[in-house]
Design brief:
Blueprint: E1 2-9, E2 14-20, H1 23-31, E3 44-52, H2 55-65, H3 68-77
Antiparallel strand pairs: 1-2, 1-3
């Protein structure tokens, strides 16, 4: 199984979209500062995930969620965590 996930940082008021085969391990890595991009937003919390059979499918979905249409989809799904709004 592979996952596409969305993290949220209260500190930065930002979302981060990624994909992985081990969502628990990846969250720990983000929150321990092992990812340069997310290091400044610790602590991150998992706010959304989707499960896929293949890494290829998960990567395609991750790339979609990083487009303007994908971000709008996430805005609708994650209203309490929409960047720029009060959670």
């Amino acid at each position: 199984m592979y996952f596409v996930y969305v993290l949220y940082s209260d500190k930065l008021n930002k979302r981060y979209v990624g994909s992985t085969s081990d969502i628990d391990k990846r969250l720990i890595e983000h929150n321990s500062g092992k990812s340069k991009f997310t290091k400044g937003g610790i602590p991150w919390k998992l706010i959304y995930s989707e499960k896929y059979e293949t890494n290829s499918d998960a990567r395609k979905r991750e790339l979609f969620l990083k487009t303007s249409v994908g971000r709008k989809f996430l805005d609708e799904q994650l209203k309490p965590f929409t960047v720029g709004s009060e959670p």
